[in-house]
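Researcher: I'd like a structural prediction for the single chain below. Treat it as a standalone chain; there are no partners to consider.
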Amino acid sequence: MSTEQQCDLVVLTASNGENLKLARRFVEAAARTSASTDLIDLTELDLPLFTPRSKEAGPGASLNALRKRLHAAPRWLICAPEYNGSIPPVLSNAIAWLSVTDDDFRALFNGRPIAIATHSGGGGMEALISMRIQLTHLGAEVIGRQLLSNGSRPAKDDSIEDLVHRLLQRNRLQLG
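Model: Treating it as a single chain, here is the predicted structure.
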């Protein structure tokens, strides 16, 4: 999808493995409802590691494209594995860059409906809790239903479809 065209749903993945496969299943479920989607694989962006020193050089064009794509969708779904009891570094890094390179980065998150999902080798619950805490702190409206899957408990199609359906019913809150 074009970076300038608005879509119904951005599906972000923070891994190029099982969470990318899970993200594609969410895209397919959304397509069955005729919703337009934009799949973003954060591992393809090659954002530099954020540090105060790297901030001076800037993140490059890939972050500007990411920001435009995120602004173009009224709702997001994030698929991320659990890394050491929290969110993966690629997601944390993208959020860090987004938060320091925009005059009003909270406008990107405030009131935006976001669903969260994980396929994790371990439990996965800590990743979901960490995402929920961080996204809520940034002002997002993280929906109550979430999806947790792993090798012994794969995601069910009806759970994926239900989460997509719930998210597509949500509109961005009009604040201030």
